[in-house]
What does this fold into?
Amino acid sequence: STNKRNKNRNRATQPQEGGSRGPSPADYNSSDHNTACRRHELYVSFRELGWQDWIIAPEGYAANYCGGECVFPLNAHMNATNHAIVQTLVHLMNPENVPKPCCAATKLHAISVLYFDDNSNVILKKYKNMVVRACGCH
Amino acid sequence: SNYLFDGNNEVHPSFIHRRLRTHEKREMQKEILSILGLPHRPRPHLSHGKYNSAPLFMLDLYNTISSEEKNEVEGMLEQYQSMYTTQGPRLAKHQENAFLNDADMVMSFVNLVEYDRELSPHRMHHKEFKFNLSQIPEGEAVTASELRLYKECANQVVINETLLLSVYQVVQEHPNREADLFLLESRRLWAAEEGWLEFDILATSNLWVMSPHYNLGLQIRVETSSGRSISSKEAGLVGRDGGLEKQPFMVAFFKVSEVHIRTAR
It folds into this structure.
């Protein structure tokens, strides 16, 4: 509503007292790559699970995972949706009620697995959404 | 240990810095088996601990698909065709390339018949094949299916002959006489010819999947140009006593016809 918007605008430009509204936009380091939402490497090893006798290929695969913060201001490399951009700003103004956007997979790829069944028949099958290719804030 | 590190080669602060404990490994196994759609961990029996022709053929297909997944370039079809080799199992032709690109699953099946029939001279020589299709998941439709046999140079006795190789579907078995057969394909071959022979058995495979009680197997018979029945061994067809990499097998391509929703564990 207009009233709330005006109140939030005023609060955003005034110095914070007691930290009840969270840090101001100027406090966020938009270039802090280490904490920003991004893809991290994670390898799932079928060999480590002791499955090399029935899984022919692969020995494992790079599943990866998404981690990091989605905070204001969202940089271009965070692959943020337009909605997430707005949500970070609203979170800044109203952190108790509006959470930060989520850092999650925006692009997932399939892997193919080649394995034996109990009858020694061989199966080659594609499994979707097994590998994180890109992460983003949304 | 590269799974511990993030893209900057630094250990992510939230990561577990140790090997999995036994119960954690068991949890991982259960969850991944659930994703793969398997009720339990398979326990295959591998003869001599080596791969025979079917796994080798499937590994070729896997390498092709994996390359396509990595590169995601249309030109991978040329690379797939360039892998055609006379050393090992023949790869698919142009039509089969399309089946591979379109398939959700490919399965190869081992021949369950242990021993070739030794028949009296009065009866036709034949070689039997039976395949267990019971493990095919529900909702998978067969889009292509082949019987693959490796033929070496025939016995010297028939080396100069033209052979007629016929593939039959067994329609009904009888205890005291020849089974009722349905001819699927006949093919003329040079006795000296060597290499993989592929026979289309799509219609038969579909019948077996839809009506498993009709799965009575296949028979192949070989005759000389003069109509004399000869054994598959005389014709040069590799059987149980042949090389592992030349064993006969069946391969089928599948496309999923319905969506399966994985229930929470």
Strands of chain B lie at 105-110, 127-129, 140-151, 162-172, 180-190, 195-200, 218-224, 229-230, 249-256. The radius of gyration of chain B is 23 Å. Chain B touches chain A at residues 2-3, 5-8, 12, 14, 20, 25, 28-29, 32, 35-36, 41-46, 51, 54-55, 58-59, 61-63, 65-66, 69, 104-110, 132, 135 (CB under 8 Å).
